[in-house]
Amino acid sequence: MKQVFKLNLAVKHAAVFFASITLLFQTQAYAEDVWTTLQKTAIAARSLNYSGIFVYQNGSQLRTVQIVHINDGTNEFARNTVMEGEPREVYSKGKDVVIIKPKNDKVVMEKRHGQNLFPAILPSSLDTIKISYSARLGVNEAVSGRSTQIIYLESKDNYRYNYKLWVDEENNLLLKMMLLYKNETLEQVEFNQIDFINNPKSSSVQPKIDVSKSYVVDDATQSSHANGGNWQISVLPPGYRKIDQIEIKVPNKNVIVNQLIYSDGLAAVSLFIEPVSKGVRPKTGHITMGSTNMCANVNAGHQIIVIGEVPATTVMEMSKAVSFK
Amino acid sequence: MKDQLSALIDGEFELTNAEYLITSAKSSGDISQCWAQYHLIGDIMRGDNTMPPNFKARVMQTLEIEPALEKLEINKVVKISDIKDKSSINFTKKSIITSMPIWSVAASVTAVMFVGYMVLQQNAATSELAPIEIAQSLPLEYLQAHHNAAPNAAAYYMQAAYAGSAVDSKQK
After folding, report:
1. What three-state secondary structure class fits A81?
2. Out of B130, B145, B146, closest to residue A281 by CB
3. Whether B135 and A287 lie within 8 Å, measured CB to CB
4. How many Cα atoms are found within 13 Å in the side-chain-facing hemisphere of B42?
5. A30-217: which CATH number, 2.40.50.100, 3.40.50.12280, 3.10.20.90, 2.50.20.10?
6. Size of interface A-B (CB pairs under 8 A)
7. Which of A159, A178, A181, B172 is the most buried (most CB within 10 A)?
């Protein structure tokens, strides 16, 4: 009788073991599927040819943006025309992004770095964001008349925001996204209209030039790449790594300011270090402005300012991570 | 426009419109000069050390070079008792008038230095290095630099000053 009982117990244990193993493999496969879909989403935004209109919402502010995106097989072009507020166009070719704004009798151009224009918010390689975010599938929903799969990109800690993504089930293009923090929506972007282009022409994404106006480059903040310094950064919030360091000349300041840029693959943080000028009141404290947090403190005669589209905790910890040699 | 620039520098201007002003300031020579002048005044008021170390020497050098002609004429004024030809008196009056710029420059420099000195002294008497809350003095130039290097959607689609004012901000 005892042997039969032991046999039954062993069978039960084995069943539980195999069920656990099966569940583990299924979970891993499921997670891989989600990341595979996200990888396709990252590629789709850059490889597909499309035009449409999306609405960007930040707090109470709304902007309607007309987008044309062309990939001719060699180059990738996009033109984003902001249809409300101050007129402006965002023109990109590959990683080069320029904001073009008419101002009175001139047109002002501002250079930007990066390649994270909606819907291409995901980096080409997702390895970095896998470290800091977990991904899971949600339900299906329709966006702009197209069927989408909801995917949640959730922070593994409190050092970054969460993302809710609506991915086109047919071609994996990102059609809608929300930036979330503690159930509060900080930003939302959503296509109201989307068309896929069969015969793309790069001329359709050329910026409109107003020949009656002179074009000027807004280079008020001059910068150059740099390395090292008389400081060291101790423990950073997990997942953030330095992607660049530049020296900038801030208007109306005599000192060179060092700007260290950190990213977790999606969110970016700038850490500014400069000696406190004699007679200048240094800044301290913290302020939240929508999705952006700023923190300032003084350390060993240096002004530290940290700015990023990250939670307050992140900028505060980064500002305390600086020490001087 | 100049009043608005002044208000902006003093932190009394609506930040949603600040970008327009700043861009205008950069693109217009006159306004740019006003902008620089306002900042110079603001720097002195705040106690920033913006005066170059050889400022006094450069002023004196300029004064030495510029009034070469006027010096000659001033000498004539000093020697008015020696004038024999009365018709040259008019010329002497003209000399005094033409020598006015040097006096106005000297008076201006003295006045600016005096005011600056008084303000600096006042700041020195108070706690000039006391930190200021970031909410009271937003580092918009750093926000701009951050957006230049790592732009977000707001940086692309909204005005540069947007992040400083368009959404609810809270100080913690």
Report:
1. strand
2. B130
3. yes
4. 15
5. 2.50.20.10
6. 201
7. A159
Residues of chain A neighbouring B164 (CB-CB closer than 8 A):
289
pLDDT tens, residue by residue, A38-81: 999 999 999 999 999 999 998 888 899 999 999 988 888 999 99
Give this complex's ipTM.
0.82
Q: Do the Cβ atoms of A284 and B131 come within 8 Å? A: yes
- Choose from B144, B146, B172 for mutation: most chain A CBs within 10 A: B146
* Ranges of CATH 3.30.200.100 domains, chain A: 222-324
Angular region, A156: left φ>0, alpha ψ -120 to 50, beta rest: alpha
Tokens at A235, concatenated: 């423990």
Decide if A213 touches B, using CB distance below 8 A.
Answer: no
**Beta carbons of B149 and A244 less than 8 Å apart:** yes
Per run of 10 residues, the mean pLDDT along chain A (length 325 residues) is: 63 66 58 89 96 91 92 89 84 84 81 80 93 96 96 96 97 97 93 92 76 75 72 91 89 86 94 89 92 94 95 96 89
Q: Tens of pLDDT along A155-192?
A: 999 999 999 999 999 999 999 999 999 889 999 999 99
**Can you spell out the DSSP letters for A198-236?**
SS--GGGGSPPP-TTSEEEE---SEEEE----SEEE-PP
* Residue pair A310/A319 in contact by the 8 Å Cβ criterion: no
Which two structure tokens, joined as six digits, stand for B96?
């005094």
Q: Does A325 touch chain B (CB under 8 A)?
A: no
Sign of the Cα pseudo-torsion (B18, B22, B23, B24, in order) = positive
Of A85, A99, A221, the CB nearest to B145: A221
Amino acid at A238: P
By the 10 Å C-beta count (0-12 exposed, 13-18 middle, 19+ buried), A60 is classed as: exposed
How far apart, in Å, are the Cα atoms of A147 and each of A43, A137, A172, A268?
Answer: 19, 14, 10, 31
Domain with CATH 2.50.20.10 in chain A: 30-217
**Is domain A222-324 in CATH 3.30.200.100, yes or no?**
yes
Alpha helices (H) along B2-130: 2-9, 18-27, 29-46, 55-65, 68-78, 88-98, 100-125
